[in-house]
Amino acid sequence: MDGLAADIAMSGQVDLVKRRLDMQAVVAPEISATVGVATAFVINPIVGAAVFAASKVLAPLWNKISLIRYHIGGSLDQPTINEVLRKPKEDKAS
């Protein structure tokens, strides 16, 4: 899935008979949330202002992350989501 805030790739198995999950998800945050902020302003200026403020506060964190990997397991009714890897962005100056 390509989104405004992140790109997400998932793979694994979902057993609908046993109602069990065994999946991996990789999330790659998008650095620019400009479109999301603009959309929020169009929908509701107050929400747009809140999204803009949050994007400014969280930008330093997102700018340091290149991808996050999760394992999703357990039952369909109560899945468990565990962070497996948080890979920092490679410094281009290195």
From TrEMBL:
It holds the Pfam family YhdP. The keyword Calcium does not apply. InterPro entries: YhdP (IPR011836), YhdP_central (IPR025263). It comes from the Bacteria. The chain crosses the membrane at residues 31-54. Keywords: Membrane, Transmembrane, Transmembrane helix. Residues 1-81 form the YhdP central domain. Signal peptide: none annotated. This is YhdP central domain-containing protein. It comes from Serratia rubidaea (Serratia marinorubra). The lineage of its organism: Bacteria, Pseudomonadati, Pseudomonadota, Gammaproteobacteria, Enterobacterales.
